[in-house]
């Protein structure tokens, strides 16, 4: 079965702390991986994506993610979070149709 | 780029009533997607269109649900005989071409079935 699992449902960090959000997936065939973010009161928007090539991908606002095929993982990282990173983060996996399977999301709260 | 527009933003209805939502994608985006999101969960895929053709429907989409995109521009999602379990945020997204393109999401329609 196709699925995405995000390990942390709610994360609370202080500003300048490092962030790592876990994401594991189960998917048959070619896999494309995404992280989407939803800031308070805003719509979902793309943070970064991986299709092929370098497994370390960089996105907007200093975020990066590493695809580890052997672990079926695509963890999101940021060396130093800011208060403005407070949001809900969704990992998603897709194939070649554009249809995405999302994880249940992780709420990140950054304390100033 | 005016973004993906969804109307209405909120809909409250009584069980058994029919409701229709509208999505206007970004101009010239030929792919349009509908997702449903409940509290504490990620979006769940419902269906998608390439131009006016509906290419895939999720098993989540029961016979009470129907989606159309008659001219390959805006889309409507209708729910007939609504049930309390239909209460959710209904999200629309569009993309320029294919799977390699990112999805642009709208703000959603929040449905509450009483």
Describe this structure in words.
The complex is a heterodimer of chains A (112) and B (114). Chain A has no helices and 12 strands. Chain A has strands at 3-6, 10-14, 19-21, 23-26, 32-38, 45-50, 56-58, 64-68, 73-78, 87-94, 100-102, 106-111. In chain A, a hairpin with a 5-residue loop joins strand 7 and strand 8. Helix content of chain A is 0%, strand content 54%. With 112 residues, chain A is mainly beta. Helix content of chain B is 0%, strand content 49%. Chain B is built from no helices and 11 strands. Chain B has strands at 5-7, 10-13, 19-24, 31-37, 44-50, 53-57, 65-68, 75-79, 88-95, 104-105, 109-113. The N and C termini of chain B lie far apart (36 Å). The chains are: A mainly beta (112), B mainly beta (114). At the A-B interface, strand 5, strand 6, strand 10 and strand 11 of A face strand 5 and strand 9 of B.
Range of helix content of chain A: under 10%
- Write down the overall geometry of chain A: globular
Helix and strand composition category of chain B: mainly beta
Give me the strand/helix succession of chain A. EEEEEEEEEEEE
Mean of all residue-level pLDDT scores of chain A? 93
Morphology of chain B: globular
Overall mean pLDDT of chain B: 92
Which regions of chain A have little confidence, pLDDT < 50, spanning 5+ residues? none
Summarize the structure.
Chain A is mainly β and 112 residues long. In chain A, 0% of the residues lie in helices and 54% in strands. In chain A, strands 2, 5, 6, 10, 11 and 12 form a 6-stranded mixed beta sheet that branches. Chain A has a 4-stranded antiparallel beta sheet with strand order 3-9-8-7, with no helix packed on it. Chain A has a two-stranded antiparallel ribbon with strand order 1-4.
Key structural traits:
heterodimer; A: 112 residues; six-stranded mixed β-sheet; four-stranded antiparallel β-sheet; B: 114 residues; mainly beta; seven-stranded mixed β-sheet; 11 strands
């Amino acid at each position: 079965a196709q699925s995405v699992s995000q390990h942390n449902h709610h994360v609370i960090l202080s500003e300048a702390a490092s962030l790592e959000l876990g994401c594991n997936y189960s998917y048959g065939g070619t896999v494309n991986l995404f992280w989407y973010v939803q800031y308070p009161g805003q719509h979902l928007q793309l943070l970064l994506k991986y299709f092929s090539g370098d497994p370390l991908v960089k996105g907007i606002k200093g975020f990066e993610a590493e695809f580890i095929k052997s672990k079926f993982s695509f963890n999101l990282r940021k060396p130093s979070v800011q208060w403005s990173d407070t949001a809900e983060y969704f990992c998603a996996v897709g194939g070649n149709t554009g249809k995405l399977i999302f994880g249940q999301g992780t709420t990140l709260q950054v304390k100033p | 780029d005016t973004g993906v527009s969804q109307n209405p933003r909120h809909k409250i209805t009584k069980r058994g009533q029919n409701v229709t939502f509208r999505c206007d994608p970004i101009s010239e985006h030929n792919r349009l997607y509908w997702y449903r999101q409940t509290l504490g969960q990620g979006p769940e895929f419902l269906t998608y269109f390439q131009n006016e053709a509906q290419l895939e429907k999720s098993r989540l989409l029961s016979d009470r649900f129907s989606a159309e995109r008659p001219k390959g521009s805006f889309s409507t999602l209708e729910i007939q005989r609504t049930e309390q379990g239909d209460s959710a945020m209904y999200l629309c997204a569009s993309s320029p071409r294919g799977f390699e393109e990112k999805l642009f999401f709208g703000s959603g329609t929040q449905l509450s079935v009483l």
